[in-house]
């Protein structure tokens, strides 16, 4: 059994959510953690999780929401999370200097406030970091907390620094791309720190690159990681599922 620890499901992207979830199950991807990271997707993700017992939630405001996110939104977010036992993480939260460079201070503030929410609720954090390694690292070091670096695609040096903070690394379709150093880096990432994710509908793995991604492609990612680490896919499957259960405190009987 696999867990897709990070994906986005929305009717805007998928005509038939039932089908997406069934497709995943048919490939042994039995649990999904979907991320609601703006007002609209937070609401929609909650609705989906209410309908499907095997769908859990990560909720939080993405850095691209910085300009429109108010303090009252954060108070509401905390209340929503507190009263919903399907929420297993706060995220994706973090810093994105690729799209927005002119509001770094505000992004940092929103990031830190949401780390505080996670700490108060004792939930792990799911980190989005793009072109912002140093600031992300400094904030996480200071926070001294637990979580995962979502869609990790960086080099070995960054991997080691995140690992030194105790963070898990979320590995997705990028590992299957031709020109990525992640194939090398993954060899140095301990098995007990790897989480599998698709980030659907984005970042579909090869040979579906450029198409719409789906949680059902998790085994393709798992296979590529196992191949590069020289281990059996069954071992990777079991270890990464255990990692996800442990970090997100998911109890599956
Ligand atoms: Ni995402």
Instruction: Give the count of helical stretches.
Output: 9
Tell me how many strands there are.
8
Number of domains: 1
Widest β-sheet, arrangement of strands: 1-2-3-4-5-6-7-8
Ligand catalogue: nickel (II) ion
Strand content: 15-25%
Derived from helix and strand composition plus strand pairing, the structural class reads: alpha/beta
Write down the CATH topology.
Answer: TIM Barrel
Low-confidence stretches: none
Mean pLDDT: 97
CATH class: Alpha Beta
What is the terminal separation in angstroms?
A: 13 Å
Classified in CATH, the superfamily is Metal-dependent hydrolases
What's the SSE pattern?
Answer: EHEHEHEHEHEHEHEHH
Your description of this structure?
This protein is of the alpha/beta class and 253 residues long. The chain has one domain: Metal-dependent hydrolases (TIM Barrel). 42% of the residues lie in helices and 18% in strands. Strands 1-2-3-4-5-6-7-8 form an 8-stranded parallel beta sheet. Nickel (II) ion is lined by residues 6, 8, 35, 92, 199.
Give the helix/strand layout.
Blueprint: E1 2-7, H1 17-26, E2 29-36, H2 39-51, E3 55-59, H3 71-82, E4 87-96, H4 104-121, E5 125-130, H5 133-143, E6 147-149, H6 156-164, E7 168-171, H7 182-185, E8 194-196, H8 218-229, H9 233-248
Parallel strand pairs: 1-2, 2-3, 3-4, 4-5, 5-6, 6-7, 7-8
The site of nickel (II) ion has 5 residues, from loops.
């Amino acid at each position: 059994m696999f867990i897709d620890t990070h994906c986005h499901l929305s009717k805007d992207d998928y005509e038939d959510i039932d089908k997406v979830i069934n497709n995943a199950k048919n490939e042994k991807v039995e649990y999904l953690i979907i991320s609601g990271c703006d007002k609209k997707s937070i609401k929609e993700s909650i609705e989906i999780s209410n309908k499907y017992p095997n769908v859990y939630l990560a909720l939080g405001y993405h850095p691209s929401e910085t300009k429109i996110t108010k303090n009252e939104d954060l108070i509401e977010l905390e209340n929503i999370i507190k009263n919903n036992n399907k929420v297993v993480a706060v995220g994706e939260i973090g810093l994105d200097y690729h799209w927005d460079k002119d509001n770094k201070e505000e992004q940092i503030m929103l990031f830190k406030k949401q780390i505080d929410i996670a700490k108060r609720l004792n939930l792990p954090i799911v980190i989005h970091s793009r072109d912002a390694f140093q600031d992300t690292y400094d904030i996480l070091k200071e926070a001294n907390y637990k979580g995962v670096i979502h869609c990790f695609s960086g080099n070995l040096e960054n991997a080691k620094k995140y690992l030194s903070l105790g963070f898990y690394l979320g590995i997705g379709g990028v590992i299957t791309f031709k020109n990525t150093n992640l194939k090398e880096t993954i060899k140095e990432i301990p098995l007990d720190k790897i989480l599998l994710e698709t980030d659907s509908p984005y970042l579909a793995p090869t040979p579906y690159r450029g198409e719409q991604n789906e949680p059902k492609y998790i085994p393709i990612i798992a296979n590529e990681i196992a191949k590069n680490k020289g281990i059996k896919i069954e071992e990777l499957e079991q270890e990464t599922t255990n990692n996800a259960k442990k970090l997100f405190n998911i109890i599956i009987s």
